[in-house]
Design brief:
- The complex is a heterodimer of chains A (390) and B (435).
- Chain A is of the alpha/beta class and 390 residues long.
- Chain A has a domain of 145 residues: Rossmann fold (3-Layer(aba) Sandwich), CATH 3.40.50.
- Chain A has 14 helices and eight strands.
- In chain A, α1 packs across α8 and α7 packs parallel to α9.
- With 435 residues, chain B is an alpha/beta fold.
- Chain B folds into two domains: 189 residues, Rossmann fold; 235 residues, Rossmann fold (3-Layer(aba) Sandwich).
- In chain B, α4 packs across α6, α5 crosses α6 and α15 crosses α17.
- The longest helix of chain B has 23 residues.
- Chain B is globular.
- The N terminus of chain B is likely disordered.
- Classes of the chains: A alpha/beta (390), B alpha/beta (435).
- Chains A and B meet through α5, β4, α6 and α13 of A and α7, β4, α8, α15 and α16 of B.
- The complex binds iron/sulfur cluster (SF4) (2 copies).
- One iron/sulfur cluster binds next to α7 and α16 of chain B.
Chain lengths: 390, 435
């Protein structure tokens, strides 16, 4: 059995490989294989899987990639993920990708979908517009048709039909994957010293580039190993990290937060892995099931409308309670409209519930960790003082 | 967009006076709503449902217009800073912050009276994601009834049956019942048809006005002047007979200008020589609007077509008109077709077509720091248009209502070198981009 270090070492290799060698290898093994890329926050990967397509999660170029061309595409006041994603494209690092999905998360990703169409006219490009109306007969029906259109687009890529049974089977595969993702998260919540956040992060990142079955296996192996490994428990406070659902922070930032005295007991990285909060039924109409799961049982993030004002922020507050967190760190990418516009409302909800929080901004290539470490360290100290005083 | 009250000395034509009267009367109605009992809906310009709102005897208050008004009065800077002090990020849309800062000050209308608290927040969410968040922020402040209309994006540059059905269903099952409840007025589809008929009439003349810029010299400036011309059709007057009258008067005035070979009117009188014909992409800067405009007319530059005049509805490019025979479908198509709800390739096509039809000498982008909806992708759009048309393009950066991001010297320099570039191109030289 592999130990956690070996597993995480492998995940880190995948994470650092901005040429996507593992995915390329998978594709090269069979000329019929296809890859479809997607950006945050959510796409129904079940549909790609049902067509035998590998879904490749694209989260920008990270801090190791030098952006040379990307800056010619974006003004300085736009976040970094689209420019490093463009950089990946123009440097041909995504030349093996047969299609790209751009979820409806913000205007930057939205407009990037059009840029992709201009840049790569031969690639299947879809702006994936999920409903903001959460009534089955309205938003649900619309979404079923969106899923149908996406399915047809994918069928165009693979040159054959995707059957309902194939989708049902893929739903089951992803249900299993989500159960494991949740198991890893729950394990970290219970014993955060045994599953450091940077490890959990890398483990989830692996799911962006590997076939889902391999990712599930990796998580099982990690859990099995982590349970039996002994790691020292620190006197850290427990925080939830919020706002990092799209452009990713450098790995060092996650490590810095932990080193400064905070256990991250929940976060919103790679929400695609746990966006659906319940298993999707494997019987009946699979597109209706996926639609209903989205409409009725999906997570909350800045990109999703909350119809009832009284519910705004509840998801986060419930997470604080469920995970026994002591505070929230808002960590949002610079110039990220959804995260930064949402923050005052979420902060307001926290204040009303006496949950402490701090906020800072980052970019995927932020180099200076000292200020963040200091801010998080002070936050941790303050929380400890409060809890000792009360 | 329609700040006729501060425009008095700019254009003293009867169309302007008419618009000024309309706006003043509307502000009077809005600010006296607490006494008259008339209900108020707050909604946004792109995708506004004015014809429908009027069916419920409700008034229409538009937060962007208030932000513009405060920008032109040079009050938005302080409001934005207040909002930032309240915890709003320096990175986000300044319209939102100007609005929130204004609310914190008690939201005073241009007539000096307080704006009423809306009875309904009507979010027709089209062309810009920020609206959704802005709306949630307003809801947080007001705590009033809300109705939401999600308008899908034309990702593939087409309106599909699924998109249209979705919007119509929301109108029928969510939006209209909410309006009925809030207003106490029963929905009458014939009333809606009547309003839409009025809209279509005004839209005919509005398109004629925009297309008058195909003349040489152009009798209008379709950007700096255009922001006044779009006023009624973009805001609380679409669907009214007032709007029909306004565009009729405006058309008459422009017909006269064409007949006598006159160029556009500027704040300093009539523009003399038309030297450069430009197509402009992006909203203008409001805090230094006059100064900005002067940089153009001083050099003899006229904007013959602008994308900003399509943000509250596209009527010229593919001939859309509100259609009384298909009332709800037509409202859906209107919302779906607003400029920033169309994908980037389509925006490029629209600009390319305008460059050709309006015989433009160049293409200019005024990129707005805080508006991702417009700005993300504009550098690529510039290169595409340049490649396709062979005409020189330039890029300047300002902001809508945050005076900190309007640097006059920079903008002026860039414009001057751009005009030189156009001259060079005319003289047969190859242009290098002024970006
Ligand atoms: S980081 Fe924020 S603004 Fe940038 S693309 Fe992602 S969601 Fe959009
Ligand atoms: S981001 Fe742009 S389109 Fe959206 S509300 Fe702000 S100024 Fe308007």
């Amino acid at each position: 059995m592999k130990n956690t270090s070996e597993i995480i070492e492998y995940c880190q290799e995948l994470y650092e490989d901005i040429d996507f060698t593992a995915t390329r290898k998978w594709k090269d093994a069979d000329p019929a294989r296809k890859v479809v890329g997607y950006m945050p926050v959510y796409v129904p990967r079940e549909l790609m899987h049902a067509g035998g397509i590998l879904s490749l999660g694209i989260l920008g170029g990270g801090d190791s990639m030098e952006v040379i061309h990307g800056d010619a595409y974006y003004q300085s006041y736009i976040c970094r993920i689209p420019r490093s994603t463009i950089e990946l494209a123009v440097t041909k690092r995504l030349d093996f990708v047969d299609g790209m999905l751009f979820p409806s998360i913000c205007d930057v990703i939205r407009n990037l979908s059009g840029m992709w169409k201009l840049l790569m006219p031969d690639v299947y490009v879809r702006y994936f517009d999920t409903p903001q109306n959460f009534i089955s007969g309205i938003g649900g029906d619309y979404y079923v048709n969106e899923l149908r259109e996406l399915k047809e687009g994918l069928e165009g890529i693979i040159g054959r039909e995707i059957t309902d049974d194939q989708i049902r089977n893929s739903i089951a595969v992803y249900n299993e994957n989500r159960r494991l993702v949740n198991a890893v998260y729950d394990f970290r919540t219970a014993e955060p010293w045994k599953a450091p956040s940077w490890e959990v992060y890398l483990l989830m990142r692996a799911g962006m580039v590997l076939p889902v079955e391999e990712h599930s296996q990796l998580m099982s192996d990690y859990l099995a190993a982590a349970v039996s490994e002994d790691k020292p428990m620190r006197d850290n406070c427990r925080i939830i990290l919020q706002g990092s659902f799209c452009e990713q922070p450098p790995l060092n930032l996650i490590k810095s937060i932990e080193l400064s005295g905070c256990y991250i007991v929940d976060d919103d990285y790679m929400l695609v892995t746990r966006w659906l909060l319940e298993d999707v039924p494997t019987d009946g109409d699979p597109l209706v099931n996926l639609s209903e799961a989205f409409i009725k049982h999906s997570g909350e993030t800045a990109a999703k409308y909350v119809p009832d004002a009284a519910d705004k922020g509840k998801f986060l507050i419930n997470a604080v309670k469920d995970k026994a967190a002591e505070g929230v760190i808002f960590a949002a990418p610079s110039f990220c409209d959804p995260a930064l516009l949402d923050r005052p409302m979420m902060a307001g909800a926290l204040s009303r519930t006496d949950i402490p929080y701090i906020s800072f901004k980052y970019a995927e290539n932020s180099g200076q960790m000292q200020p963040i470490r200091e801010q998080a360290g002070t936050f941790a100290d303050t929380i400890k003082l409060w809890s000792e005083a009360s | 967009m329609s700040p006729a009250d501060i425009n008095e000395d700019v254009i003293k034509e009867s169309s302007m006076l008419k618009q000024k009267e309309m706006i003043s009367a509307n502000y009077e109605k809005l600010t006296s709503a607490p006494e008259t009992g008339q209900k108020v809906a707050s909604t946004y310009v792109p995708g506004n449902l004015n014809e429908l709102i009027m069916c419920f005897d409700m008034l229409n208050n538009l937060p962007e217009i208030n932000a513009i008004q405060n920008g032109m009065r040079k009050q938005s800077g302080a409001m934005i800073q207040d909002a930032e002090k309240m915890g709003h990020s320096e990175d986000v849309c300044t319209y939102v912050k100007a609005d929130i800062g204004n609310m914190a000050k008690g939201a005073i209308a241009p007539n000096g009276k307080p704006m009423p608290v809306p009875d309904l927040l009507m979010l027709s969410y089209t062309g810009c994601f920020t609206f959704l968040k802005w709306f949630e922020l307003l809801r947080d402040q007001y705590g009033c009834r809300t109705a939401m209309l999600h308008v899908p994006y034309e990702g593939d540059g087409v309106i599909t049956a699924n998109m249209r059905d979705y919007v119509v269903k929301q109108l029928k099952e969510e939006v209209i019942p909410t309006f009925e409840e809030v207003s106490g007025v029963k929905f009458d589809i014939d009333r809606l048809r009547e309003n839409l008929k009025n809209s279509a009439k005004a839209e005919e003349d509005f398109v004629w006005v925009l297309e008058s810029a195909k003349n040489k010299p152009s009798p209008i400036d379709a950007y700096f002047g255009g922001v006044y011309y779009v006023g009624p059709i973009f805001t609380a007057f679409r669907g009214t007979t007032d709007a029909i009258d306004y565009y009729k008067i405006l058309r008459g005035e422009i017909e006269q200008r064409i007949a006598s070979g006159q160029g556009p009117i500027t704040p300093e009188g009539e523009m003399k020589e038309e030297k450069y014909r430009l197509v402009v992409e992006g909203p203008p800067n409001w805090t230094s609007f006059r100064e900005f405009w002067k940089m153009f007319y001083d050099e003899g530059a006229v904007v013959v077509s602008s994308t900003y005049t399509k943000v509250g509805g596209v009527y010229d490019y593919d001939g859309f008109r509100h259609d009384p025979d298909n009332p709800l479908e037509s409202l859906a198509d209107y919302c779906l077709g607003c400029y920033t709800n169309r994908n980037l390739p389509m925006r490029v096509d629209m600009i390319e077509k305008a460059m050709e039809e309006y015989q433009a000498d160049g293409f200019l982008i005024n990129s707005i720091k805080s508006c991702n909806s417009f700005s993300a992708g504009q550098l690529m759009m510039m290169r595409e248009v340049e490649n396709r048309t062979g005409k020189p393009a330039a890029f300047i950066e300002t902001d809508l209502v945050d005076p900190r991001y309007f640097s006059p010297a920079n903008v002026k320099n860039r414009l001057e070198s751009y005009f030189q570039m156009i001259d060079q191109k005319r003289a047969g030289g190859s242009p290098s981009r002024a970006a």
